[in-house]
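Same chain as my last thread, 91 residues:
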Amino acid sequence: MNQLIVENINFSYGKKSILKDINFKVENGLIGLLGKNGAGKTTLIKILVTLYRPSSGSIVFNGYKYNNYTNEIRKYLGYLQQDFNMYKNLT
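reply #2:
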């Protein structure tokens, strides 16, 4: 069984707080993330797939703590954004 535990996640861009005290637990199943534009959904997803690091809080996926096992966690996760564009430095 897969398990994702998110506890007290906070994230800021400079002085602007984007996520504040986010907490949830997810086990096997299909999950959706809904919210208004600018609510922090994309930022949260980028944290969950290890592209961003939270300012504080903890995330554990299948027993692996995010801060200690980033490469191990990346074996299980992927991220494909809605509007996919190639990076300009790639050919």
